[in-house]
Amino acid sequence: MTEIRAAICEAFGAPLRLAPVRLAPPGPGEVEVTLAACAICHSDISYIDGGWGGALPAVFGHEASGTVSATGPGSRYAPGDRVLVTLIRACGSCLSCATGRPVLCTAPKPERSPISLPDGTPVTRGLNCGAFAERVVVDQSQLAPLPGDIGMDVAALLSCGVITGIGAAVHTAGIRPGEVVVVIGAGGVGLNAIQGARLAGAARIIAIDLSEAKLAAAREFGATDTLLATAEKPWSAARRLAGRAADCVLVTVGATAAYDSAPRYLAPGGRLVAVGMPHSGETARYEPVILAATGQSITGSLMGETVLARDIPRLLDLYRQGRLKLDELVSGRWPLERINDAIADTRTGAARRNVIIF
Predict the structure, then answer these.
(1) Does residue 316 sit within a domain?
(2) pTM to 2 decimals?
(3) Domain that holds residue 25
(4) What angle separates helix 212-221 from helix 188-200, to the nearest 10 degrees?
(5) Which of 86, 125, 128 has its CA nearest to residue 107?
(6) Burial of 219 (0-12, 13-18, 19+ CB in 10 A)
(7) Using an 8 Å Cβ cutoff, are 180 and 206 in contact?
(8) Buried (b) or exposed (e) across 55-69, using 16+ Cβ within 10 A?
(9) What are 87-134's pLDDT values in tens digits?
(10) Residue whose C-alpha is closest to residue 132's, from 53, 52, 55, 57
């Protein structure tokens, strides 16, 4: 057992407590990673608030990068390897994995958590990672190699926010050149959905948000047009801007009001992609007859349908070419001791991504 520091969630909605925990050594196929950075995702905050349930105490955090410090039997990694750490744990052999959808792996997850309190009390490893800690032990399928020419703070963003937004646009939505795309929400994931739409060749990318500052950021990341969500009938304004309704709408915020309005932007045959995740129990309202009569569709996008071995090298190459913005996504860098301040800043909605630096 190794003793490390971690930010522990002991009660939903309460501040995290920085305290020592014990970390078990990696087992077969597992890897211990000493973390350099971990970004704060709104999914972490939803779990901290109890929005999706779960057992406590827990250590959350899942958008991380670091260096391999120990390996279990059968690992393909070695100490010293630079890696990013994701929540995508895949067996590689179930039907979902075999058909190219590892994010939907159906293999049972291990029951034991490698994290415990000094007195032996088990601590839940949130989102398969538990990365609000100095080290993690994860399955080797959750890692992707990182080259030496990218900063660890920037690389961490590839673990979730970047692949979720870009993947939703490119893989799930299948945006084609010349299409009109609406992105509702211009936060961290929304900005990457905008980047994905731009890379896919969308003719018009219309960003919708409640914040003028976020809309300015959306233009920086490739939006051709922006609209305030508080405007009267923004869906009508979007049609006027593009000259027609949207081929695709991506909802990147976990707000049911956004889901209620999203179908109004769609053209006949249009696609609505659900990316943002409201709390459990929240519902949206649709008229199914309109979907049926217009041939529209609604589909969900989990982690952008990412395949790590396929997508991470490609995104790193786009970054090197200057075609993918990563550095601009980092709003602030915080020490682990100030994680509650970083979370509070993220809650304001102003941050693109706050990153904990170890």
Answers:
(1) no
(2) 0.97
(3) 2-159+325-357
(4) 30
(5) 128
(6) middle
(7) yes
(8) ebbbbbbbbbbbbbb
(9) 999 999 999 999 999 999 999 988 789 999 999 999 999 999 999 999
(10) 57
